[in-house]
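Hi Prof. W.,

I finally got the Fumarylacetoacetate (FAA) hydrolase prediction working! I wasn't sure whether to trim anything, so I left the full sequence exactly as given:
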Amino acid sequence: MTDKLLFPEKQQILTAIKNTDTLFPVHRIFCVGRNYHAHAAEMGVSVDKTKNVPFYFTKHPSSIIPSGSTIKYPPQTNNYHYEMELVVAIGKEGFEITEKDAEDYIFGYACGLDMTRRDLQLKARETNRPWDLGKDFEESAIISPIVPKAECGVIDTGKISLSVNGDIKQDSELKKLIWNVNEVIAHLSKFYHLQPGDLIYTGTPEGVGPVVSGDKIEGAIEKLGNIELTIK
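And this is what came out:
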């Protein structure tokens, strides 16, 4: 069949699993918006969990870049931001999953950076347009090796932090997530049949800000380790 393709088929996007040569094939990337109260506030928005539900945007799997990479400053932006996040890796198919059963669908966890062209995102928000240009672009989803849940246990508490050139910018706790991991999986699975290989970036705490060429970003999540990125 391959000789009937108009152009070569794109290679499957893969990411590392810690302490093994086995690789995790990435299927889709879902990102939760405004999932910490303090970050929502710094974006000029308040979130009332009794009245609101989670919302999502997506990134194409080809935007995945491994921790430790050096990437170029992206085009068409003058306000390029980091967002440090807990990433959940889905390990089996599920639809309309209950919060009680959500943990059964988790393969593992990773540190993630949701890199954002903030000026383009805010411009889209002001004009009631999608965030795609601000969020879904090349080299915008950084990920550390996935730590299997079988090794680290369930990750629902712990410190999450980020520094730029050694200066702490984000310093919070996973327990401050507005919608925790189980709630996110249960809600998202009402709209999608979750599949093995899906990644969920669960949201960022307060302290987001710009980086420029030459900056080095380092983040960490308790029990999961570190993530690093250098801007060329």
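The chain has a mean pLDDT of 97. Does that look reasonable to you?

Thanks,
D.
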